[in-house]
Amino acid sequence: MASWNSNSLGFTYEVLGWIAFTCWAIGFYPQVILNFRRKSVVGLNFDFVVLNFTKHSSYLIYNVTLYFSSTVQKQYFDKYGFREMIPVAANDVAFSIHSVLLVSITLFQIAIYERGSQTISKITIAIVSAVCLTAGAFMNFKRKSTEGFSMGYVLLDFSASVSNFAQLSVQSIDQGSWVNLYGDIGKTMISVISLFFDIVFICQRFLLYPANSNIAVILPKSCEGKKAVILPKSCEGDKDPLINSFTDEPQLRSENNVCD
User: Fold this and answer.
1) What's the angle, vertex CA 167, arms to CA 102 and CA 95, rounded to 5?
2) What's the pLDDT tens digit per position in 182-218?
3) Is 96 exposed, middle or buried (0-12, 13-18, 19+ CB in 10 A)?
4) Distance between alpha carbon 244 and the CA centroid of its chain, in Å?
5) What is the pLDDT of residues 72-99, one digit of tens each?
6) Membrane-crossing residues (predicted)?
7) N or C: which end of the chain has fewer CB within 10 A?
8) Structure confidence at residue 233 as a pLDDT band (50, 70, 90)
9) pLDDT at 4 over 60
10) Cβ distance 136 to 201 under 8 Å?
């Protein structure tokens, strides 16, 4: 197995890796904290969470086997050559373990907190792919709102993905080879997909559906038969908003009180 040609690049590689880990790790907490404070998961797409769990569980298995298994490492070297470095670092393994743990906590919150009429779709149960981010973006599009979805996760995820690419690039520059970009296709693709959808989420939040403009609400099961409504900011004089923008607490109100 190859070693680092430059100690400074090796150090930079480690630093970038742990920066990516820190951003990705912290990125899970805003949603968990938001759910805890609201005692509600209304607005959080369950398909997103379930498929996110599938993604990170698969990535955990991939990282752990390539990092610890000598048999898998030998297969990697047989395919890409013994002059290449193992592209999985300690921070990748730590990230995967932490991700599975935090997504599991979010799934537990879905089970115990107010979730309205939201359910996990049948198709999600059968799908094991990266469409978790598509599910979240599509739900925001349907609701014309990003309320209930933590943007802290998105911004930190974006920072982590950039750091992840930088880490891969540093290793490639040191070794004079770009094999690690497709040799560790899982690490590369998770960054590519994350960056793409992070940009989609950022556009939805700040350009398409700015916070406190139009707020969509999914009513709980206790209000069966009633339709979820959207209350524009133009409804002047309303004293009973659907969502208090300072507390993010969903509140029920009669459709008769909503302006036409």
Assistant:
1) 15
2) 777 767 877 788 888 888 888 888 888 775 444 444 4
3) buried
4) 25
5) 999 988 888 888 888 899 999 999 999 9
6) 15-36, 93-113, 119-139, 151-170, 190-208
7) C
8) very low
9) yes
10) yes
Torsion angle, alpha carbons of 60, 195, 28, 93, to 10:
20
Q: Count the Cβ atoms, other than its own, within 10 Å of residue 51.
A: 25
The confidence score (pLDDT) of residue 127 equals 61
Range from 81-90, 131-140, 251-260 that averages highest in pLDDT: 81-90
Residues in the chain: 260
Which of 88, 66, 83 shows the shortest CA–CA distance to 2? 83
Q: Between these two residues, 80 and 227, which has the higher pLDDT value?
A: 80
